[in-house]
Structures are given as structure tokens and as C-alpha cells.
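Input set for joint prediction.
Command: fold jointly, output C-alpha cells.
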Amino acid sequence: MKYTSQSVALPYFIAAIGLFVGQIVFGLAMGLQYVVGDFLFPEIPFNVARMVHTNLLIVWLLFGFMGAAYYLIPEEAETELYSPKLALLMFWIFLIAGAATILGYLLVDYATLAEMTGNNILATMGREFLEQPLLTKIGIVIVALAFLFNISMTMLKGRKTVISIVMLLGLWGLAIFFLFSFYNPGNLVKDKFYWWWVVHLWVEGVWELIMAAMLAFVLIKVTGVDREVIEKWLYVIITLALVTGLIGTGHHYFWIGTPGYWQWWGSIFSALEPIPFFAMTVFAFNMVNRRRREHPNKAAVLWALGTGVMAFLGAGVWGFLHTLAPVNFYTHGSQITAAHGHMAFYGAYVLVVLTIISYAMPLLRGRAANSQRAQVVEMWSFWLMTISMVFITLFLTAAGILQVWLQRVSDTPMPFMQVQDQINLFYWMRLWAGVVFAVGLVTYVTSFFIKGESKPLITP
Amino acid sequence: MTPLSASNSALETTARRLPGDLAIWFFILAELLAFGVFFVVYAFTRANHVELFNAEQLTLDRTSGAINTVLLLTSSFFVVRAVQVAEAGFSRRAAPWLAAAFACGAGFVVVKIFEYAEKIGAGISLSSSTFYMFYLSLTFFHFMHVILGLVIIAAMWNGARTGRYGPDNMNGIETGAAYWHMVDLVWLILFPLIYVMR
Amino acid sequence: MSGTFTKAMARNIFYGGTVFFFLLLVALTVDTTTNLHKSDNSANLTPQVVAGKHIWETRNCIGCHTLLGEGAYFAPELGNVYPRRGPEFIKAWIQSQPTGAPGRRQMPQFHLTDQELDDLVAFLKYTSEIDAQKWPPNIEG
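C-alpha cells >
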């Protein structure tokens, strides 16, 4: 840590990990509800558990992105953060608003919550991932603007590197495209069309800029490869990401009442979407192979390489599996979608946030790297979580293939619930893989509390 | 570095040097891949609907397509001349060649707008039929490339005019030229594929 | 093969390519918006349908069901539930929840009024008449 104001990243990272634990708890509950349907009913019905699971994911990733920005922007700009006080204030506002929203989901009936929070003035709730009450949505915008103001001012008064510019572009894009969440016309097709301007243009657009910038930052630090080299490749990779990803939005416009030509445009461009992810993998491995120093933080290198591989598998390969319109006609909205969603989010965004946490956390705690013992535990947690996520994905894919076959391809299609009974075994296996994931997460949290002789921080 | 040694080193590396910036070649490869997949999909779809494609292909304006082919080829030639002149050390003299290339490209745009106006007037849209979907998608996607190419040529013209290019600074002009040649190349496949081949 | 690879050029291509493809997305969006009335069933978008959509949203139906394939995958697709089950079955089904069958997936009781039930059914009818390019493949969704 070169600048004292970077330490505001610490509470952000801690909150991210805490909410991650919450996300997995609700994930396990849902996994159980898939096989024991009335588990926790009526206290926490599936729809509430899912809302908490997905919203916690989004919120903790946002905490991770913000923490990453507060950590890396001052270091890149070579100056103290514009206002550490504002950053801390926003942390508490965001945390309290987030916690209040989650408690609202759990304790208040959703329709009542909608009424209490002004949904009748401007209806924005009840759409997948955008379930937040209007007040929370406005809160997110305010926090995002204050955050962007803070880091933009920091960059403007200091050195403007490619990494910070790309990071800022991604974060500004994140805030701007979120504004489409306030547009909810009565026309369902239009509603769905612009809903994707938030969801797709986030995860297959601007978030990729944030991810690539974070990865590039860590790679510069742990490999010592020339900044010029890394920054050039960063530009090439994000160009490929947006060239394929922007029109790739079309792969969501196949069956929602939009014109038929999206099947062609969407298929062709989204078929190219694995390319930037593949480039990112090659890039990460290449930089590590060309490293000019042996960084004491081996765990951070592992997370970084894992991000490359798992993002390519989850977003690239599993995305490509069902992105072509003739395939998607059968797989749309099945467990195959769920399989892809799980590995893509884990591989790209969960891992990149854990990468930066792994790199920055020891420095924020005043050492260059954690003790050998702590790192070994941390690396164990990487393998436990990653391998169990691979199995979650494989089991859901198997469930999905069977579901598609019985319910959609067969000459005598079965009703939905009957098919669900047929694929129950895969849901059980997914649940056990989920339990292993939770063990991995506990291992991860434990690694922060393992003492031992750590590498001292050498201040230049 | 003296001008002599600069041109010497330029000579030594000419044989094996990739013209233009490596970054544009990644971009060109991605673009060619997108166009290539689009072309292959067109070919397969046509094979399944030969009669529809043949019938509707007759409604396309081949004359304007042919004029546009000539315009783009000429334009590419002018760009080649501009690059040669710049490499010989006469950056400012490259500017008129680039202006001529721009004029040809602009001519392409004008002809295309007339063609589109006629088609839209006839009520043809992306949703009219599979053939028109391909015709409009592919030509419009290419049309936007021409417009971007014109912006790039304008920037190159500005650079040439201010004397930016020379034997030791060919990156900008060569990169732009590579992009423009790609736009030309794509049209050379697109025109016969969609307008002519039966 | 040697070549030049500069950061400035990579940057220019990034900005140029991004603006280019974003404009292309905007162009396709404009075309979609102007032609949407042909497929989006907006001719039947009555105030009752809008009211039904409001019920759909404020009961968080998407948290278990899919609608035109989007949502959660815990409960059946409802984009075509209107032709699959018919209006009376849908209303009776919603009113009789939860089944309370041990170990089975449960749907909450929403205490909807008759008016709200009619609105919701109107919304599901309108949704089923959207031209979704023949999706889903069959009536089971």
C-alpha cells in the first residue's frame, strides 16, 4: 500500500466477503428447496431466497468493484484519494441500504414492500435481478455518483494510466446503463428489451472493462511485466469484448417478441463472444510466464490465472453452448441457462474480485504477503470452490439436457413438474457440490485468521 | 538518428515488417471473422431457399453495385498511392491522394443512400424476408464500415497535410490504409455473393 | 515478423470500435422499436393488461417462474399458460395455493381479489399472444 487513503478499500472488501457468505447460505437453502420443495415454506419461499441470493451477489460484487477502485485508482494515479471521508460515508450508506433491502425482502411481504417504497409512483420492481425497491435503486444511483465523483477527481489530479481510464469507463458505464432499470413500460416486450440494456450490457459489456482492468492491475504487480505491454493488450482485449458483446445483446432477443432478424445478428456476434475471454486467458498465462519477479503472494497469482480459465469456460464455452438460435430455441430458460449463469458469474466476476482481495488484503494489513500456511489454506479454498463450481455446472447441465429432452424435444412432451421429478437426482448432486463450495468458502474465510511468519512489507 | 540511418533501418525491415499497427490486425481479424461467419450463414441459408433468394436477388440494383465496386477499388488505389508518396518522404503530397480516396468513398455512400431510399420506398425492411434480411444486414454493416473508413481517411488526410508521415513514421497512415483495404476486400466478396451469384 | 504495436493506436481502435458497434446497436434498436408493433401485441395492451403486469411484478412471480423463458427455473413457464390451462384453471390454481403436499414445491397464497385475478389473467392472455417466433417449442413450455 503506497497511499494511506487506499485503506478505505478494507471495509469494502470485508463487506464483500461477508455478503458473499450470505449469498451462499441462501444458495444452499434454494438448492435444498429444489429437492425438498417445502423447506422453509412459508417463512422463506423460493422466490424470496432467490431474490436474496442474486441481489447479494450483485451487491457484494459492487462492493468488490468499489473496493478495488479505491485501492487501485490512488496507486495508479500516484496521489491520495480525493476524499477518503466521502468514501467511508458511502460505504456505510451502501451497506445500511443494502442490509435494509435484504431485511425488507425477508421480513416484509413483497407486495407490501412495493407499496411502502413508492412502487406505485414509479413501478420498477418485480423484474429479475432488478427487484430492489425504488428507494434502493435511487440509493444505488446516489452512491454510484458519489463514488464516481470521488475516483474521477482522484484520477484527474494525478497520473492517468490506461488501467484507471478503463476501470473508470467501466464504472461509469455501469452507472449509466443502470438508469435503464427505471424504465418499465407496460409493454412487456419493450420492458424485456431494455431490461437487457442493464443486464447484458453490464455483464457482457462494461463489467468486462472493470474485470480486465482489475486483472491487468494485479498482473502488473505480481509479474513485474512492463506496464506498456500489459496496457496494450488490455486495450486489444476490451476492444474484442465490446465488438462482440454489444451486438451480442441480440442473443437475448430471440424469443421475447422482437423481430426475427435478431436470431441472425445475435447468433453470429455472440458466437464470437468467447474470443475476448480466450484472449484474456492467454494474456494472463503469458504475462505470468514472462514474469520478471517471484512475487511472494502465490495465492494472488493462482486466483488471477483461475479467473482467466474459469471466465473462458463459464462465460465463453458454456455461453457458446446455447447461444445459437436453433439450439437456444430448445434450451432457452432451462437448467442449461442456470448452469451457464453459475459458472460465468463465478469464473469472471467472483474470481476477479477475490483476485484483487487476495492481492490487496495482505498489503492493507501491512505485509507484502500472507504467511505460507495462510496462503496454502487460501489456495485450498480456491480449488474447493472452483472444482465444486465445475461440478455444480456439470450437474445443472446434465439436468438441463434431460429437461430439454423430456419437455421440449420429445414427441410426447412431459409437463414441467413431471420433468423436474425425473431430474431430481441431478439436483441432489448439485446440492452436495454446493455443500463442498460452502466448505471452500469457510476455508477461504478461515485463511484470513491464520497466523504465521508473513513477508514484511518493504517500503521503498 | 540521422535521416540516412532511419531510411536504412526502414529498408532492412521492409521485407518482413507487418504494415500498420498490430492492434489494427486484431481488429481486422475480428471483423473479417464476423463478416466471414455472416457470409457462410448466408450461403447455407441460400442453399435452403434457392428460389426465394434467386427471385429477390433480381430486384437488387446491380448497376449501382458495380459503380460502387469501381469507386471502392479506385479509392483503395488512391490510398496505396498516398502511402507510397508518404513513404518516399513527401507527407504533404499524400494529402491530395487521400482527398481523392475520400471523394470516392463518399461517392460510394451517396450511391448506397440512393439504393437504400429506393428499397425503403418499396417497403422493404429487415423483416421483409430472409433474403432482404441478409441483403440489408450485410450491406448496412458494410456501409457503416465505409463511413468509419471515411472518418479514418479524413484523419489521415489531416495528418498528411500537417506533414506527420514519413519513412520513419508510417504507422498511422499504414494502419488506416490496412483498415480501408479490408473494407474494400469485404465489398469485393459481398457484391458478387449477394448481388450477382445465382 | 516484426511489427509496430503502439498503445496510442490500440487506444484509438478501442474507442473507434466501441463507438462503431454501439451505434450499430442503436441503429438496430431504432429499427426494432419502429417495427415492434408487428410482434409485441401492443394492439391488445389494455389498461387491464397493464394492471395485471403490475400484479405480476409486485408478487415477484419471476422469482420462481419464467415468462417467455426469462426468470427463475423453479416453476413452470407462464408465457403460454393461458392456452395451456385456460383462464378458469389459472384463477382456481392461484386461489388454492399452497397445496401443502409434504416435500413438494409450494406456491404462496397471495390473497388476490377477483378483480386482481382477472387483471393477471388478462396480462397472461396478452403475453401468450406476443409473437415470440414460435417459442416455446410446445405447449408444455
